[in-house]
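Fig. S4 source data, part A: sequence.
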Amino acid sequence: MRFPVLFALLAGLASAAPATSDLWGKSGEKWSPAGRLPDFSRAGYQRGEAPLPDVPRAASVRDFGAKGDGKSDDTAAFAKALATVPKGAIEVPPGRYLITKPLVLAKSGVVLRGAGTDRSVLVFPTPLNEIAPDWGATTTGERTSNYSWSGGFVTIRGSIGGAGLGNISQPAKRGADVLTVASTGKLRVGQEIEILQSDLPDNSLATALYSGDPGPIKNLHGKSRTSLIARILKIDGKQITIDRPLRCDLELRWKPRLQAFSPTVTGSGIEVLGFEFPVTPYRGHFTEVGFNPLALSGVAHCWLRNLRITNADSGPFVSGDFNTIDGIVLDSERPEDKQHCTGHHGITLGGGDNLLVNFECRTRFIHDITLTACASGNVVSHGRGVDLSLDHHRRSPYENLFTELDAGAGTRL
């Protein structure tokens, strides 16, 4: 799916005639990669250049002993299926499957696929913090479970980091696609690289990402970073040409450098399933104990597709690059807290160039859609909520696109 550089209008147009930005022109003739309109065309699975695949069937969880009767504990059967099947789709036939421990999918090309969001339902009676306690604290020192903002019962887990490839030796401006490097000895044309830089204790990088107007950011403690995944198109002496413009300036004080983009898990997904938690009262911010369904952790070109999540503390937590989340429905029968919310985070995006589309929040979370620390190039499109909240958490997310959204009541956008 390719996204042109467009922004949605939240108010109705005065005229029915099509309108385009003066920064864009009629067909992009005024657009500049260094201008105010970023390029979002590479968001999602396979950089937005291919549809999500229909992965062939490999096995069924019933082959590994799953009952799906809503009474038997099917955790071991699911774990064995995920560990045993080397590639392909693991089918989850119609039924209600009791899951009492976290499940991890840690290989490429494996899909967990149900028969319908109301027909194949995973049921989780016990929260994660009772199964595997993980206590932490807020930035103000309040004790809370780390599941308040992370973790899931079903996780696709990998690692993005690759080997270091050398330093960038000259500054470069946002919009540039030619970089000067200290050495090209480890580089080749066609190679995928990650361009990184890290903040200093003075939060100067975060300040730059906020265009010099960051507000109070002392709690960042110099931990901001920037990342861009690109392909090398050309090598000429100590200069490399990449296939996309920089999203921000590179300055030597932030130690700009290159790293191989070598994700360990790609092409895996979870699709056409229901996730159900008990109907318990939601007691408010930072009281969450881990009724969390899903996480994508450190993966690329993976997906969540056509899922229904009911009574969760939080919905999917996504980190990594070029992942697609398509067709998520979040609903709840939980008694609300004083803010009329039933959970903490609806859908959270971290990393870069992820695509969230066709979602529906039928209940209110404190943060319906969250862009977490330094997330960039993510696209949130064609979604709706009863009273949609778009959250940036003051942790330096930059150049993300929100478009074609229905905010519902629109009191806390």
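Fig. S4 source data, part B ends here. The first helix runs from residue 75 to 84.
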